[in-house]
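Hi F.,

I've been meaning to write this up properly since the lab meeting, where we talked about keeping a consistent format for the predictions we share between groups. The idea is simple: the sequence comes first, exactly as it goes in, then the structure tokens exactly as they come out, then a line or two of notes. No screenshots and no reformatting. I'm using this chain as the first example so we have something concrete to point to.
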Amino acid sequence: MKSITIKGSERESVGKVATKALRNAGAVPCVLYGGDQPVHFSAEEKAFKNLIYTPNAHTVVIELEGKTFNAVLQDTQVHPVSDKILHLDFFQLHDDKEITMEVPVKVTGVSPGVLLGGVLRLNQRRLRVKALPKNLPDFIEAEISGLEMGNKLYVTKLVSEDYKLLHPDNTVVAQVRISRAAMKAAQEAAKAAKAPVKGKKK
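Output, unedited:
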């Protein structure tokens, strides 16, 4: 999985006044969990742009005045109106310990059902996986070449030896639904087939 580097500074004071001062200065208060002790730090808000405002999944290298930590983003708090980042929680990665995170789904292939007029619906845009850090995928490939009209692609078709998918077996990742136009055409064709032919002798 691709990584993003965040350069920040450790925080000595973690009270409300200090936190507000950080935000007013354009920085984001953060906490790194998963080590012996939580690490409180801050970094400029713009440093998180490529981590927060993207559909992709990344691991994070946090550099704090000579100290380096490998981590993943665990929780994000944003302002409900301005979308300003208020607080971020990270979890430290360890080579021998599995981590859980959400990974985007990437659709590949061409569905025969879509070619016939069906509509592809992506039910799950992200899937929750559990894996060792080295096995975390950039994305999970959803191959739709076998989907006919009305077919569904279940999460059981996306299994891998590198990671575990933390979803029930009946979770639908994608499906091809009949479009309104195709449904209308089918209904009209059915009516035409039932209609009596003009001039036909009884």
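Notes:
The first helix runs from residue 16 to 24.
The two ends are 73 Å apart (CA to CA).

If this format works for you, I'll send the rest the same way.

G.
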